[in-house]
């Protein structure tokens, strides 16, 4: 298998492909609502610290595992140490659980894009619109189905390359547009400047262990870590490309876009709430509530809204494609299925798990797991439980069990001197395992309402 593996061409190819997977709804939809909810500046600070330490080290480890073994995650762990093959399996389960609810949110983006195109922009700007929309049983399902069908068609016909090309052109435009919307809002909206301060100035009194729990879960999600994705990417990476430099670039892309998305949304919601921090917890709907309100205040806001939602859709699609690709290739490999049937199987699972998530605020709002609606449940269980478990096991494995012990560091040093070696070693061996374990225990206790933090 290894000899057949194709590689990314060119230096930038790898970084762009990995960034295409990393940059998605996590940055634009998820990061801002968590930042708003968990104290603004303090969340941002914790997130950035985690990104350049944990994020860096874990991503280096995963890419190196992939490049060293040239195998998919399950094969990679199994070939390195049979006792750790469960990490590959557990990691493989995560995209299966994320893709369905990711597609529900992708469906929300489609709906808003369509609404802006068909002249519904001003009703979408009403505060109650989003709540009313997700409380309908039928419509969110239709948009969810459309999104997942679109993803499946792209994967099935193998036209990802085309989509990736388009999105590579669109990504810089998305960045500029986000920056423009952020600056426009801060300059023109009364109270948004104070909102900007709320977003960038850490208020240490707002710090709690939940800030770290949420920031770390977000980091895994956003950088597509602890689910085998980066191992897969690494397996296609050529030996002469610097792992370390590539990771720095992906990190910069990913955190930069999340930061900008936060700057566009958090100050605005702060202003709309009249600076009342208690009301900042708008949850998963925040982007869909705040952005239409901003667009309404802008000259030409409808056109800007169309452009914006179109680019968010592209970012969401490239991420969903990489999620689906991963699951499809696991089924192909492990269940010895053809590509088509494997694609249909993934689609079936998505429908099964996605429909309850799409109905969580309507027909099935009474059904909860651990006190959460389906969408929040899948989001929580993957980000706060499974990913930390995989991350913890990965740290133990590459820090203590891999043979030779320096295997990862050697792999990284193949193409360029490993400048962050000491940071990597300290994080992977000592700091990360302790922190991840603490976080894991807190989120489990919190989920079962044993403690409240
Ligand atoms: N990192 C993506 C985002 O931030 O939207 C989510 C994601 C995409 C996770 C692809 C995993 C993955 F394979």
In short:
By secondary structure, the chain is mainly alpha-helical.
The largest sheet is:
none
Rg from alpha-carbon coordinates: 21 Å
Query: Which stretches are low in confidence, meaning pLDDT under 50 for 5 or more residues running?
Result: none
The assigned CATH architecture is Up-down Bundle
Task: Tell me the number of helical segments per DSSP (H or I, 4 or more residues long).
Answer: 19
Q: Distance between the terminal alpha carbons, to the nearest Å? A: 48 Å
- Kindly report the average pLDDT value: 91
- Envelope shape: globular
Helix content: over 70%
CATH topology name, in short, is Amino acid/polyamine transporter I
CATH class bucket: Mainly Alpha
Can you write the helix and strand succession as a string?
HHHHHHHHHHHHHHHHHHH
Our estimate of the beta-strand percent is under 5%
Overall structural class, as computed from helix and strand content, comes to mainly alpha
Count of DSSP strands: 0
Q: Which ligands accompany this protein?
A: 4-fluoro-L-phenylalanine
Number of domains: 1
């Amino acid at each position: 298998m290894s000899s057949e593996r194709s590689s990314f061409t060119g230096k930038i190819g790898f970084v762009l492909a990995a960034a295409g997977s990393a940059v998605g709804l996590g940055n634009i939809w998820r990061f801002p609502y968590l930042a708003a909810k968990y104290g603004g500046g303090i969340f941002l600070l914790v997130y950035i610290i985690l990104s350049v330490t944990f994020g860096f080290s874990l991503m280096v480890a995963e890419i190196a595992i992939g490049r060293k073994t040239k195998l998919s995650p399950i094969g990679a762990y199994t070939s390195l140490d049979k006792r750790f093959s469960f990490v590959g399996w557990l990691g493989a389960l995560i995209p299966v659980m994320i893709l369905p609810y990711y597609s529900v949110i992708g469906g929300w983006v489609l709906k808003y894009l369509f609404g802006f195109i068909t002249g519904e922009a001003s009703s979408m700007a009403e505060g109650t619109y989003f709540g009313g929309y997700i409380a309908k049983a039928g419509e969110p399902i239709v948009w969810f189905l459309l999104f997942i069908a679109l993803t499946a068609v792209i994967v099935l016909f193998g036209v990802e390359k085309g989509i990736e090309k388009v999105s590579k052109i669109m990504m810089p435009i998305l960045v500029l547009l986000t920056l423009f919307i952020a600056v426009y809002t801060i300059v023109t909206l009364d109270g948004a400047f104070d909102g900007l301060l709320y977003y960038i100035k850490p208020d240490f009194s707002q710090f709690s262990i939940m800030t770290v729990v949420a920031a770390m879960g977000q980091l895994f999600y956003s950088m597509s870590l602890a689910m085998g994705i980066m191992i897969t990417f690494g397996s296609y990476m050529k030996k002469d490309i610097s792992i370390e430099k590539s990771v720095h670039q992906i990190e910069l892309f990913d955190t930069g876009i999340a930061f900008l998305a936060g700057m566009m949304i958090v100050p605005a919601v702060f202003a709309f709430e009249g600076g009342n921090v208690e009301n900042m917890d708008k949850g998963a709907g925040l982007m869909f509530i705040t952005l239409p309100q901003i667009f309404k205040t802008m000259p030409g806001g409808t056109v800007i809204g169309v452009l914006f939602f179109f680019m968010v859709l592209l970012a969401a699609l490239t991420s969903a494609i990489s999620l689906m690709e991963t699951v499809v290739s696991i089924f192909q490999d492990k269940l010895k299925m053809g590509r088509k049937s494997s694609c249909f199987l993934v689609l079936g699972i998505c429908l099964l798990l996605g429909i309850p998530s799409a109905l969580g605020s309507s027909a099935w709002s009474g059904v909860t797991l651990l006190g959460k609606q389906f969408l929040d449940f899948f989001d929580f269980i993957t980000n706060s439980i499974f990913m930390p478990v995989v991350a913890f096991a990965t740290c133990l494995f590459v820090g203590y069990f891999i043979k030779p012990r320096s295997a990862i560091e050697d792999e990284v040093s193949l193409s360029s001197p490993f400048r962050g070696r000491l940071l990597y070693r300290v994080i992977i061996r000592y700091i990360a395992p302790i922190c991840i374990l603490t976080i894991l225990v807190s989120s489990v206790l919190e989920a079962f309402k044993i403690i409240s933090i």
